[in-house]
């Protein structure tokens, strides 16, 4: 009978834990919902200004048409007109520029945006299109791909072989794959494109990230900004980078031997698809994404509640307090409330300060409540000290992302060792009889 009574108390505690798990799931759902609102704020800024930018090119393009004999579904041979493009990538592409960052506020959300003052220099070798029988070549042109042309500020300055030329809107026949601007080219009498060099200066607005497609045989990129928290994404890490409180500078050196960008671009244009291949990318990120941190904290909430209940339950059994399940539930709800407070405060305060305020409020509430439940302020303060240690451990898990698994494993091992040490001489049968 005593064992059944003890088992019943454990089962009731398990039900309470399940109820608290449901409450934690609701908090995690709320965190995800707030993160979606943040993403909508980013989309609103991108819709009114310019989105994430991707530069492709410059490229030299020669359109062509060709009559090909094809067999249709009925097996009848028919002549069909096929359209395509000959693409020439630059031998050398040099990109240099500085991102001038700022933050746009949408409600309570801050969205990082930038203005890029960039310079591009490219060199092309002489190019002769393939001599395919029946193929007719059209007028060649130069394309500079820009993901969102709304970000162009003023008129870009393009110098082609030392003379200034006027850019035109659109990318001609490449519009299905690349947005941007173009300029007509003049082939020689034999239809060849001579060797050429160009310089382009432009001012480009964007939101959060700037990326470049390394389409040249030799790509050399240098970017700098006063933003102190860059994220270097894409397929290529910088060959050199310096990041500090005053901003960052980074450079890339990418060869076509190490990149599939040229082939990926050829395939995307041939299939009329957008370009999503290997890129050089830098993003202006928030060093502490409050929603990522809050979601990670909520994921540790299960561990947090279980550890608290283990300590609370052991104390209850050893001291013979015979606490009611509702008291366990109220203690657990105060723990869940911490994660809700952390989310709401971190939207208004720096994450560290929000964590301190939320944890201090919940620890004070628990101490005040337990002083009555445990009928002793010293006992309540001892339990509050344990909670303080747990909150400190949770913060350590949050800030040590690379070592979170190791720290969590060590914490669980330490707690298990402490419980086993405290109860190794405990007579559970006698404990059940003493609570009759």
Automatic annotation (TrEMBL):
One of its GO terms (cellular component) is plasma membrane. The chain crosses the membrane at residues 7-27, 300-318, 325-345, 351-369, 381-398, 404-423. It comes from the Bacteria. InterPro entries: Uncharacterised_IM_CreD. Keywords: Membrane, Transmembrane, Transmembrane helix. This is Cell envelope integrity protein CreD. The keyword Disulfide bond does not apply. The keyword Secreted does not apply. Pfam families: CreD. NCBIfam families: PRK11715.1-1 (NF008712).
